[in-house]
Amino acid sequence: MTASPPETTRRAGGRTLLFAGVVAAVLTAALWLYLARYDTVPASVDVAAGQTGTSAGGTWRLASLERADSIPNRSSADEPVTGATFVVATLDADLRTADPQASCSFQLAVGELRIAEDALVGAEPPSAVCARRGNGPVTVVFEVPARMVGDVRAVLVDTGTGDRPLRLAGTLG
């Protein structure tokens, strides 16, 4: 007759298996978080102030960054909300040879913050200018908290084609 292992030996084996499972789950979760940490924002291509960058076959250069209290539109003028100001970026773009599938969206780098373009302000949204695939200036308006205007560092241009966004460096003039 064979003797069965004592009850305490079976419990210890179960605890070891449970502990190994918990350790494996924790390590898997930690590895996933480590690998996914940069998946939220694609790394950008840095373009020095005054230089030209290329994305999706089009070229971009930040010509100027200016502060504005109001922006002319079709019938009157748009004004920022209380406590904010407009920052107007003028970009020189040559999109004649750009990828036909390319679009364009813009963000303003203000310190670590990214502020999206305000496409409803001004005479024409920048995306309409991009869609024409022409050569010339593209004006983009951003509404920025007035206390943060001194932290404006760059304009990011994303063509939506999978290329990394361009980070066109510049300061308010």
What does this entry show, briefly?
The protein contains 2 helices and 11 strands. The protein is an alpha+beta fold.
Features:
173 residues, five-stranded mixed beta sheet, 2 helices
Q: Can you offer a commentary on this structure?
A:
By secondary structure, the chain is an alpha+beta fold. The chain has two domains: 1-40; 45-169, Immunoglobulin-like. Helix content is 21%, strand content 37%. It is built from two helices and eleven strands; from the N terminus they run H-E-E-E-E-E-E-E-E-H-E-E-E. It has helices at residues 7-36, 126-131; strands spanning 45-47, 53-55, 58-68, 71-72, 77-78, 84-94, 105-110, 113-116, 135-145, 152-158, 166-169. The protein has a five-stranded mixed beta sheet with strand order 1-11-10-7-8, with no helix packed on it. It has a four-stranded antiparallel beta sheet with strand order 2-3-6-9. A hairpin with a 4-residue loop joins strand 4 and strand 5. It is elongated and about 90 Å long. The model has no long low-confidence stretch (mean pLDDT 84).
